[in-house]
């Protein structure tokens, strides 16, 4: 199964009070695709990069059980595991530079707008 969506959305406050700014993932490379930020990779990322909205991801889910959970809506969110490299402090913590470690399919995304937007056959 192929999934497409946003693992991070720019300029929106997440549930932890962080805001990811455009350019935070400018030098991103492919990273593992996990579930709930744990365990072994459940697939592979085919394309990843920033666009005007956020960090867009196209990935193939190779684990059949995870694919069923995504298709059924149980894993409808996307999330990033990262290490902040450059931060501005203000009302919110603004992430302006980050090292991406992984992208996860999640049940509840920290950033509510970070969602799987399209599911298709490989």
From TrEMBL:
Pfam families (alphabetical): Peptidase_S78 (PF04586)
Listed InterPro entries: Peptidase_S78_dom (IPR054613)
Highest taxon in the source lineage: Bacteria
Cell inner membrane recorded as keyword: no
MF term (GO), any: peptidase activity
Keyword Hydrolase: yes
Domain Prohead serine protease: 3-117
Keywords, in A-Z order: Hydrolase, Protease, Viral release from host cell
GO biological process terms held by the UniProt record: proteolysis
Descriptive protein name: HK97 family phage prohead protease
Organism of provenance: Sphingomonas hominis
């Amino acid at each position: 199964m192929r999934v497409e969506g946003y693992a991070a959305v720019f300029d929106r406050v997440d549930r932890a009070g962080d805001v990811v700014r455009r350019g935070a993932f400018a030098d991103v490379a492919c990273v593992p695709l996990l579930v709930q930020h744990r365990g072994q990779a459940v697939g592979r990322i085919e394309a990843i990069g920033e666009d005007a909205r956020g960090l867009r991801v196209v990935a193939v889910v190779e684990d059949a059980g995870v694919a069923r959970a995504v298709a059924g809506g149980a894993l409808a969110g996307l999330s990033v595991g990262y290490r902040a490299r450059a931060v501005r402090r203000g009302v919110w913590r603004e992430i302006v530079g980050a090292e991406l470690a992984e992208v996860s399919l999640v049940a509840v995304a920290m950033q509510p707008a970070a969602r799987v937007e399209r599911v298709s056959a490989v």
